[in-house]
Amino acid sequence: MSNKGKLIVISGFSGAGKGTVVKGLVEKYGYSLSISATTRNPRPGEENGREYYFKTVDEFKTLIDYNGFIEWAQYVDNYYGTPRKFVEDELEAGKDVILEIEVQGAMNVKSQYPDAVLIFITTKDKETLKERLTGRGSEDAKTIEKRIKRAAEEAESIDAYEYIVINDDLSTCIDTVNSVILSRKCAKENNLEFISQIKNDFRLEGEI
Ligand code: ADP
Ligand code: 5GP
């Protein structure tokens, strides 16, 4: 198998539970999580460097200029970006890295890393999404409305994802996403070097 880590891109409608699922994947299965930079304000309880690196618009634009992001995008009224160095170092060290990013960023990553695994997490229906988004209590009514509008746009891009996982029961969802990643790592296409190596080893054995 390749010694390099795998890039795992997780997207989903705001309020679908991506953040909660990703936290579970990190805690239960030890994935490495990329911490994004954003210009949005911290929610109560969020800490700089833990949930996000919180930046001003000027700081964010400087990072863009210095090629500091693998990808960045505008979402509702703010910028979000994936810092380059952490991801490249972790992959090089053989770690599987999760990016929890929106749809435009996901497409951008796929074009740079064709073997990235793209997973879309959703609630079973729109009502559940609205309940979770409202229940989280972190945004005002206007922002929730904008996020639901954005969800309607994002729904049009679901087909671009390779795997769709419904977040109904949380722990089932975490285990399912982990299974998807494991299954992808075992796919033939991801093991061409290994296949060729083991074939070769046995051919040499045959010659002795
Ligand atoms: P996202 O990161 O997709 O915006 P969050 O992880 O913040 O979503 O989850 C939105 C809300 O839904 C939170 O209050 C969270 O506790 C809750 N939640 C997440 N997953 C589930 C689940 N499987 N069942 C019930 N509530 C959930
Ligand atoms: P939130 O404000 O709810 O934390 O995130 C809003 C949206 O931005 C979510 O869809 C989240 O996945 C996405 N997002 C978070 N970080 C990044 C990033 O680095 N790049 C991109 N493209 N989207 C991100």
Q: What are the defining features of this structure?
A:
208 residues; alpha/beta; 5-stranded parallel beta sheet; 4-stranded mixed beta sheet; binds adenosine-5'-diphosphate; binds guanosine-5'-monophosphate
Briefly summarize what is shown.
With 208 residues, the chain is an alpha/beta fold.
Describe the 3D structure.
- The chain has eight helices and nine strands.
- The chain is α/β, with parallel strands linked by helices.
- It has a five-stranded parallel sheet with strand order 2-7-1-8-9, sandwiched between helices.
- Helix 1 packs across helix 7.
- The longest helix is centred in the last third of the chain and has 17 residues, at 170-186.
- The relative contact order is 0.20.
- The structure holds adenosine-5'-diphosphate (ADP) and guanosine-5'-monophosphate.
- Adenosine-5'-diphosphate binds next to helix 1, helix 5 and helix 7.
Low-confidence stretches: none
Which geometry do the CA atoms define? Answer: globular
Quick check: average pLDDT? 94
Radius of gyration: 19 Å
H/I helix tally: 8
Describe the largest sheet.
5 strands, parallel
Helical percent range?
40-55%
Q: What structural class results from the helix and strand content?
A: alpha/beta
Q: How much of the residues is beta strand, in percent?
A: 15-25%
Q: Strand order, biggest sheet?
A: 2-7-1-8-9
Small molecules in complex: adenosine-5'-diphosphate, guanosine-5'-monophosphate
Q: What is the count of β-strands? A: 9
Note the run of SSEs as H and E: EHEEEHEEHEHEHHEHH
How many angstroms separate the termini?
Answer: 26 Å
